[in-house]
Amino acid sequence: MIVDVNAFLGLWPFRHLWHSGIDGLERLMGRSGVSHALVSPFESLFYRDNVAANGFIRELGGSKSLCPIAAINPSLPDVGDFLSEMDGLRAIKGLKLHPDYHCYDLNGDSAKAAFDFAEERGLPVIIPLRIQDERLHPKFALVPPTPVKALIEVAKLYPKVNVIACNARSDELGDVLGDGSPNLHAVVSWVQEEGFVASAVRDHGCGRLMWGSNMPLQYPEPTLEQIGKADVGPREKEGILAGNAVEVFNIIFREPDAGPLR
Amino acid sequence: MPGDCGYDVRAMRITDAHIHIPREDPSGVGNLVKAAERNGIGALCFSSLGSWEYEPPLEACVRANGEVKWAMDRYPGTVVGLCYVNPASGEAGLREFERCIDDYGMRGLKLWVAVRCTDPSVDPFIKAAVGYGVPVLQHAWLKSTGNLPHESTPTDVAEMAAMHPDATIIMAHIGGNWEVGAKAVKDCRNVLVDTCGTICDAGMIEYAVKALGAERVVYGSDNYDFAGQVAKVLSAEIADEEKEQILSGNIERVMGL
Predict the structure, then answer these.
(1) Angle of helix A148-157 versus helix A170-179 axis, rounded to 10
(2) How many C-beta neighbours within 10 Å does residue B33 have?
(3) Per-domain boundaries in chain A
(4) Tens digits of per-residue pLDDT, B94-148?
(5) What distance in Å separates the CA atoms of residue B194 and residue B182, rounded to the nearest whole number?
(6) C-beta of residue A22 within 8 angstroms of C-beta of residue A68
């Protein structure tokens, strides 16, 4: 079993995607052996309406392999209504925040609404520090990455909320793992320097490491191979590739013919 | 299965066209060689950027090339050396390049960000590389966040290639911004691109192969995880024969390995 904690649905406005939508994700998952993916919509980066941006959630109702993550912009005035509506959606496995695209401070008032909600409902919060290499943004839409320091600070403010850092570079992953807060998790979702996974596990253990593909902007295989061929034991690999995510996101897997994920 | 990209890399000898002596730890080459072996990589084309100073003096380049020579002697048959110079060092830099080829047995020239590749100071080095029949590995990036003052762009590489049609130029990172990079050098038949860098964008290899042909794409790691960087090529939706060309055949042809 392999669980991807950082995948996206929708179209990316800045370049053609070879695989997209539910079919595209499932195709990439099938060829790389990924059994489950936690997905959020690209639309949430750009829309000014949380409800419309997360309309995909209902489309996933019957999926056995895709788990919805609600990606919210807590600085929008509709956030309260949206969070109330989400209360009725038991399938939601967590929240995703994009303070880089939505231009707010993770430790400010806007983010507080999201973290309070997550804390009350026991939902993890995924925060991609960036969506793509910042050097590749179109010049008219430069988006500086979310500072890893802010992410670490907010995790300390909400010790009961599991905070998951995605799309981090090696030094940022090192900061997250080095902090040691048990609710702070790091996702291998970028190809890091040679030997990074083994040294991270050696220095910090594997209990706070997960895997996320950043599909469909990236293919899953390079980072999967990075973990698969790392000089760490099979139990550690299993934890990074599935076990840790299953525990943090409280994913209950059902047999293929037993209906959608819960 | 992770760790098995569905392709038997043991059937070929992968060559890494772009890797550096580890900064502040030249002896780390040994760990890289071991890790490369685990990933089916039989040859590594090393250059050293020394302390990664953007405009290094000649002495720094001489020291850096000495590190590469040490690695070549320590791992013969595995480490292939590339000479690194700052073209602004002029005649003395040219003598260093000649020394690296003639005395050290290096097989190419590495140019980074000391001067733009269209600067006239670069010309004698390219002419010398042509004379030796060795390729030039030219760094290139087009960064929307802004390039370094003398950092070459893919368009610069295309201009250099046009000025030196007999030179064989490997443009690093597909120019970084790979859609622009591949298109910029599309008509320069003497330019290949390497696949390395942090970026593993879906469709990147396919795009380069479509624009340039598989025979003009070479695999490199730039010290990033070998398994991940090789998987970048293996996971591309191209023919197996094209993967072999990228991972092995093209760089062997260009380097005469």
Answers:
(1) 20
(2) 17
(3) 3-248
(4) 999 999 999 999 999 999 999 999 999 999 999 999 999 999 999 999 999 999 9
(5) 11
(6) no
Instruction: Provide CATH code, domain B9-255.
Output: 3.20.20.140
Going by C-beta distance under 8 Å and a sequence separation of 6 or more, which residues neighbour residue A138? A14, B144
Closest residue by Cα to residue B139 from B87, B58, B194 = B194
B7-24 pLDDT, tens digit each: 565 567 899 999 999 988
Please answer whether residues B213 and B249 qualify as being in contact, where contact means their C-beta atoms are separated by less than 8 angstroms.
Answer: no
Test A191 with B38 for CB contact under 8 angstroms: no
Interfacial B residues in 13-72 facing A (CB < 8 Å): 31-32, 35, 38-39
On whether the pTM is more than 0.80, the answer is yes
How would you label B215-251 residue by residue, b for 16+ Cβ within 10 Å and e otherwise?
ebbbbbbbbbbbbbbbbbbbbbebeeebbbbbbbbbb
Contact A219 B4 (CB under 8 A): no
Q: Which CATH code of 3.40.50.2000, 3.30.70.3290, 3.30.565.10, 3.20.20.140 fits the domain covering A3-248?
A: 3.20.20.140
The rounded distance, in Å, linking the Cα atoms of A156 and A171 is: 20
Report residue B162: phi and psi, to 5°.
Answer: -70, -35
Q: Which residues of A touch B172 (CB under 8 A)?
A: none
- C-beta atoms of A2 and B35 within 8 A: no
**A95 φ/ψ angles, rounded to the nearest 5 degrees:** -110, 155
- Measured in whole angstroms, the distance separating CA A179 from the mean position of its chain's CA atoms is 19
pLDDT in tens, chain A (262 residues): 999 999 999 999 999 999 999 999 999 999 999 999 999 999 999 999 999 999 888 888 778 899 999 999 999 999 988 988 877 666 889 999 999 999 999 999 999 999 999 999 999 999 999 999 999 999 999 999 999 999 999 999 999 999 999 999 999 999 999 998 999 999 999 888 899 999 999 999 999 999 999 999 999 999 999 999 999 999 999 999 999 999 999 887 665 554 544 4
Q: How far is A85 from chain B (nearest CA, A)?
A: 35
Q: How far apart are CA A147 and CA A196, in angstroms?
A: 21
- Name the β-bridge partners of A72: A97
Contact residues on chain B for A220, CB-CB shorter than 8 A: 235
Nearest CA among A60, A118, A67, A125 for reference residue A96? A125
What ipTM describes this predicted complex?
Answer: 0.92
